[in-house]
Amino acid sequence: MKDITILAIESSCDETAAAVVVNGRQVLSNVISSQIDIHTLYGGVVPEIASRKHTERINQVIRQALEGAGKDLKDMDAIGVTYGPGLVGPLLIGVSEAKALSFAAGIPLIGVHHIEGHICANYIAAPELEPPFVCLVVSGGHTHLVLVRDYGSYEILGRTQDDAAGEAFDKVAREIGLGYPGGPKIDRVSREGDPEAIRFPRGKASGSRYDFSFSGMKSAVLNYLNTAKMKGQEVSVPDVAASFQAAVVDVLVSHAEWAMEEYGLDRFALAGGVASNSALRAAMADACQRHGAAFYCPPPVLCTDNAAMIGAAAYYDYIGGIRSGFDLNAVPNLRLGER
To answer: Considering the domain 131-298, what is its CATH architecture?
Structure first.
């Protein structure tokens, strides 16, 4: 069978990324140009600035990806690009670039769902992994518990009803003076704190037992800080960070365990930027061991937004006969499973 080589482009938020991926699992190159330093000045991602930087960097990143793989555009079988969900301006930069390259080179175009890309990062990290399995996708914009029935076939068991877990991390980090990006900074500071020092509530959502709610946890932290300030009490930032992180991890892991018990699958995967969190990875590994399930989680470089994961997802769309037309557009609120 002929190898399928895909040039992938990712620009859904503040990383400009391109990769060359073979057969959905072999990464020949994976180039990421991050804008974290720029957006740190503003305490979060500024969409207009992100769009400008994508415009400046996207051609350079694609060129580096092709050169790093030792390939030319004519060697590609398809071009995969994130078209949603995400910030509309950044998404449009990537989609426009992909359509131009597809038209100029006569190469098929494949629009890829960003969350599907995160799930497929596990195929790169663990070539032996195959569906069905349950995957917890946790990032700055999304918190989904997904039953992966087959390649390209997903059932959303639960999703956040308010803040995503990563968003809550960012907001709490800002309030305790750690700044942006909050997730990695809370993870690092938490190692110096006591996760049992403060008992923050474990958020519950109405509706599906698998749905999440993190806004209440965030509010509880703010109330704790305000109360301490009014009483003139000293606040231990490491203890607050560790206790908040423990609350979030408890909720994520408990939902994952319910799914393992109900569906009886012996494979469980983590994905998304928050999957880099050391406490979450350790707790999920322990939970999987208790339930006799194999645990999968990509390395941090494949947890953050990257194009290799988009190339992996595009491959399975490609072999499934899915192609996009030149009317492909950015869909900032695209739901998993929609096209």
So the answer is: 2-Layer Sandwich (3.30)
